[in-house]
Amino acid sequence: MPAKIIDGKELAHKLRDDMAGEVTKLKEQGIIPHLTVIIVGEDPASKSYVNGKKKASSQTGISSDVIELPSSVSEQELLEKINTLNNDDHVHGILVQLPLPAHINEQHVIETISPDKDVDGFHPISIGNMMRGNDAFLPCTPHGIITMLHSYDIQIEGKHAVVIGRSNIVGKPVGQLLLNEHATVTYCHSRTRQMEDFIKHADILVVAIGKPNTIRAENIKEGAVIIDVGINRMDDGKLTGDVDFASAAEKASYITPVPKGVGPMTITMLLQNTIKAAKGLSDVGK
């Protein structure tokens, strides 16, 4: 039987409708959730992502603005801008769009954002609290993945989860969140030997490597849950994931499509973190 599709776009719409109701209630209390996004340079992909975030914010009633800085901006100027936002009580969430120009240290930027406004969930304090299972702003893509699994009543506890990829944005944190849910987690990466042996034993397989159609049906376990984080634009302009969807869908029990899978959930979790910041529910950094 073909796999059931985990429809991230449909789930994101449902969650955003619920968030719009939360925002309305906050506004009745005089609280207007506000997200400020900083973009440095003219990267087309980054501009597209930022526009998507601004549009999604507007649809849920979240106030937002975009600060555009030239690629020539100095690291010190960028850090000063972030500190100004840290001290602005009207700004609840701060996001600096990555990647940044080579002369700017991304880690310095991430660490300058106040943990109370770190809606991307990348600050070391946020990551430390996530590791401990404490309240935190969770990284958006990993949080979106866990939310998808919960929404489809997919059991995580006791399952063997294999994460392919070890980035700080997706691979490492999603493995930790799966561990927090009592899965047994294996990380695979570019130096892993005989990776196929690990993949074939995965009950839950999360793939985030940025290589189109790398994982095929013959590599996966019958009935596995496949979460495809990859977004690759092919020569014909179409988007495809890191998993060969057509073949894998014949063997998996659940699978995320590309597009309309993990992507819409990433922005949705960013909105959720912004609302959380506005509510003042997070204890991080206190």
Automatic annotation (TrEMBL):
Q: Name one GO biological process term.
A: purine nucleotide biosynthetic process
According to the entry, every stretch annotated as the Tetrahydrofolate dehydrogenase/cyclohydrolase NAD(P)-binding domain falls at 139-279
User: Which cellular component terms (GO) are annotated to the entry?
Assistant: cytosol
Which InterPro entries does this entry report, sorted A to Z? Answer: Aminoacid_DH-like_N_sf, NAD(P)-bd_dom_sf, THF_DH/CycHdrlase, THF_DH/CycHdrlase_cat_dom, THF_DH/CycHdrlase_CS, THF_DH/CycHdrlase_NAD-bd_dom
Keyword terms of this UniProt record = Amino-acid biosynthesis, Histidine biosynthesis, Hydrolase, Methionine biosynthesis, Multifunctional enzyme, NADP, One-carbon metabolism, Oxidoreductase, Purine biosynthesis
Looking at the record, the residues that make up the Tetrahydrofolate dehydrogenase/cyclohydrolase catalytic domain are 6-120
Look up the domain of life of the source.
Answer: Bacteria
Catalytic activity annotated for this protein? (6R)-5,10-methylene-5,6,7,8-tetrahydrofolate + NADP(+) = (6R)-5,10-methenyltetrahydrofolate + NADPH; (6R)-5,10-methenyltetrahydrofolate + H2O = (6R)-10-formyltetrahydrofolate + H(+)
Q: List, alphabetically, the SUPFAM superfamilies matched.
A: Aminoacid dehydrogenase-like, N-terminal domain, NAD(P)-binding Rossmann-fold domains
Q: Name one GO molecular function term.
A: methenyltetrahydrofolate cyclohydrolase activity
The UniProt annotation places NADP(+) binding at G165, R166, S167, I231
- EC numbers listed for it are 1.5.1.5, 3.5.4.9
Which pathway, per its entry? One-carbon metabolism; tetrahydrofolate interconversion
Q: Which family does it belong to?
A: Belongs to the tetrahydrofolate dehydrogenase/cyclohydrolase family.
Subunit relationships: Homodimer.
Q: Which HAMAP family match?
A: THF_DHG_CYH
Q: What does this protein do?
A: Catalyzes the oxidation of 5,10-methylenetetrahydrofolate to 5,10-methenyltetrahydrofolate and then the hydrolysis of 5,10-methenyltetrahydrofolate to 10-formyltetrahydrofolate.
Q: How is this protein named in the record?
A: Bifunctional protein FolD
